[in-house]
Amino acid sequence: MSTPALYRRIVRRESHSPRSGAAITIAAILMIGLAYLGVEAVLSAIGQPPLLVTPEALVSSTLSAAAAPVPLLAAIGAVAAIIGLIIIVISVAPGRRGRRGSITERTAAVVDDRVIAQSIARTVSYAGDVNPDNVSVSVGARTVRVDVTPTSGRAVDRQAIQDAVAQDVSSYDYRPALRSNVHVSKKGKVA
After folding, report:
1. Taking burial as the number of CB atoms within 10 A of a residue's CB, which of 45, 108, 133, 146 is the most buried?
2. Neighbours of 182 (CB within 10 A)
3. Is 178 exposed, middle or buried (0-12, 13-18, 19+ CB in 10 A)?
4. What is the rounded average pLDDT for all residues in the chain?
5. Is the pLDDT of residue 78 over 90?
6. Cα–Cα distance measured from residue 120 to residue 169, given in angstroms and rounded to the nearest whole number
7. What is the Cα–Cα distance from 99 to 92, expressed in whole angstroms?
8. pLDDT of residue 82
9. pTM score of the predicted model
């Protein structure tokens, strides 16, 4: 495997979450359900009383479900459809961890989004002459949102902050690339 392909694979593995947790949960639920049915079948076969319901009663109640009221059947069907849709979405959608990668010719780096947020918060603090406690940065899948709450009685140069954040974000060579949004609160905070 070539080095760039290996680096891409490493970055993808570190920046996307596996589906093993969801698969293990669904498999465990199915195993518990099938184990219960097996226990009930064995208890019925040896003539012992059932834990909850006999297999015959379970089958007959399932077959007679068509006689139930229509709203109840519709509600049960809707719940089953929603659960099925959630399982399909979980299995198909890519899980993203709060990380992004950068690949160069000689190395690959994976950086946590919290590290990027702290770096941008420090940049905003210096550029806007704002207390670091008054800066909040959140890093999403493709955007960086910067919220600045100025100290009461002090003006904040929004353009200087915007330029500093844009320069800082453009200096990163991460995939996926980031865009920045800066919001300065109209209300101040007492220092």
Report:
1. 146
2. 21
3. buried
4. 83
5. yes
6. 8
7. 20
8. 95
9. 0.60
Give the residue among 83, 79, 113, 109 at the shortest CA–CA distance from 98.
113
Coil, strand or helix at 68: coil
- Tell me which residue has tokens 């100290």: 151
Q: Phi first, then psi: what are they for 178, rounded to 5°? A: -115, 145
Residue with tokens 């109840």: 72
Give ranges for CATH 3.30.70 in the chain: 111-184
181 three-state secondary structure: strand
Highest mean pLDDT among 10-14, 32-36, 96-100: 32-36
91-107: per-residue pLDDT in tens? 777 777 777 877 777 77
* CATH code of the domain occupying 111-184: 3.30.70
Mean local confidence (pLDDT), 59-84: 86
Please write down the HEC assignment for all residues of 132-176. HHHEEEEECCCEEEEEECCECCCCCCHHHHHHHHHHHHHHCCCEC
**Of 141, 153, 146, nearest in space to 187 by CA:** 153
Question: Both tokens of residue 93?
Answer: 């959608």
Maximum alpha-carbon separation in the chain: 83
Closest CA to 156 of 134, 180, 133, 181: 134
